[in-house]
Amino acid sequence: MRDLHLPLNQTQRVRLEAALHELQSLAPAAASAASVTVADNIPVNQEDNILKGHGTSDHDGEVVATLCGVVERVNKLVYVRTLRARYKPEVGDIIVGRVIEIAPKRWRLEINFSQDAVLMLSSMNLPDGIQRRRTAVDELNMRSIFEENDVVCAEVRGFQHDGSLHLQARSQKYGKLQRGQLLTVPAYLVKRRKQHFHHLEQYDVDLILGCNGFVWVGQHVLVRENTESKEDKQKLSDEVDTFTPIETRKHICRLANAVRVLSALGFTLTIELIIQTAEASLSSNVEINDMLGAEFYVQTAEREARRRADLLRKKNGAR
Amino acid sequence: MEYVNPLTGFRVDGRRPNEMRQLKGEVGVVSRADGSALFEMGNTRVIAAVYGPREVQNRSQQVNSKEALVRCEYRMAEFSTGDRRRKPKGDRRSTEISLVIRQTMEASILTHLMPHSQIDIFVQVLQADGGTRSACINAATLALADAGIPMRDIVTSCSAGYLCSSPLLDLNYIEDSAGGPDVTVGILAKMDKVTLLQMDAKLPMDTFETVMELAIEGCKAIATYIREILLENTKQLEYRRG
């Protein structure tokens, strides 16, 4: 099984297989019928003028898939939705990336796309919060904002005419991410939602589900308004010197491990599911390091199978 | 030496002349790679990892920025052959096979969809028992499809030879080192196009055609198998995603 190389014992193997089989039986039958691989024919009605979208090509008048994935049909459009592939950016996506290079007036970020993304100095808020032209001094001080290997949260601004991808960070909620863990998961496991920033008050943790499959779990930081007095800034710098409390660190690790388990099992990452998994590990007294052990994987798979079964039952009951 | 038993018609390893070795394929074996696969043809065992499409690392290698740059590196593990020997990285044989794999894969990848980027394919032979070239191409196809890289068609490859006046499919190491003709064919399975054709030694024209026909049959059988694996994998991912 992919990505899962666990030392399972006999019972665990049987339980995991049963849970995965359950998930398979719960999935709608249409999903398996719509799965295609490279060079499969996509059945279409030739009479209606269809539009060929991503992942399709034309071969002898037939629509042929060029990717492995699931066929989606929206009105006339037929396209293949990929599963395991690199991230495909859309304007407005919230992403997490890592700075790999500082170039004149810009940072280059690795965001799991086929190219590096560009964050211009002019498309981000300066730390002093004043709107003004960026001067040569600002350019020289770029390293004081982001350095190489810093983790940064930003928004996709759009493609430039030369094909490069530009980002922006014009709000207090974007910017450098510190004191936490960056996890990389396949991009198809993160769905586009209204909310990608989550503040989990019970844990004092911030969780950012980047659309590009980079997930940030870190200590909660207060988003401050620009109109602050000097004393507030003093307080902020004091806070920087203080350590993250051990409790918060444990929560970060627990949530990060929950994300690891869920992504290894290939379940869609939603905030509810991550919290549920972390809660379950707490309530069943699983140590943080044991969360990556075989037993917890099996339990998570079984829990997910139960959850989906309940959902399906509710849906059918409502009808 | 007799490579085909005149009485029973069986080959040295007990196969019939038109029989292939057992195939086994698995995707997702390298967790950090974008796509990866393990492919076995009998005792030949190859692992392939694909990284990309990603930012071009060395700008000087980029010929056309409108298309993706495909790079390939072939290596034989030291423990892959009978005699354990340290092989230098850039020897002629591995450079040639790297080139062959690169060209074969490039023919099927839709490079124009991924401008300003590069795709790296790394193939390593874990066990060599003849037909490593074919096994590497098959593994690379699986890994590329796993990485979600758009391709025209599935490329598969298989070898065939001619020994003891009978055409043999999928030569193993003993038959390969007999010094007879060895035809390696790579095809785009659905489009029925040949992307790779290599031959050692000489063959009369009419026998060549039968040998090549046999190899193409082998390629098609491999293509069917590879598509089964990919479809099963896609379905699994979709089920679990929910």
Write a concise keyword list for the protein shown above.
heterodimer, A: 319 residues, alpha+beta, OB fold (Dihydrolipoamide Acetyltransferase, E2P), 3 domains, five-stranded mixed β-barrel, 16 strands, flat, B: 242 residues, Ribosomal Protein S5, domain 2, five-stranded mixed sheet, four-stranded antiparallel sheet, 4 helices, 30% helix, 29% strand, globular
Q: Specify the overall morphology of chain A.
A: flat
Please report the number of helical segments of chain A.
Answer: 8
Q: According to CATH, what is the topology of chain B?
A: Ribosomal Protein S5, domain 2
Q: Termini separation of chain A (Å)?
A: 36 Å
Topology (SSEs and partners):
The complex is a heterodimer of chains A (319) and B (242).
Chain A: H1 10-26, H2 29-33, E1 35-36, E2 51-52, E3 56-59, E4 62-65, E5 69-74, E6 77-82, E7 94-103, E8 106-110, E9 117-124, H3 136-140, H4 142-145, E10 151-159, E11 165-169, E12 175-177, E13 180-184, E14 197-200, E15 205-209, E16 214-219, H5 230-241, H6 246-265, H7 271-283, H8 294-318
Parallel strand pairs in A: 2-6, 9-11
Antiparallel strand pairs in A: 1-5, 3-4, 5-6, 7-8, 7-10, 8-9, 10-11, 10-12, 13-16, 14-15, 15-16
Helix pairs in contact in A: 1-8, 6-7
Chain B: E1 23-27, E2 35-41, E3 44-55, E4 69-76, H1 92-108, E5 117-127, H2 132-146, E6 155-163, E7 166-169, H3 173-176, E8 182-188, E9 193-200, H4 205-241
Parallel strand pairs in B: 4-5
Antiparallel strand pairs in B: 1-2, 2-3, 3-5, 6-7, 6-8, 8-9
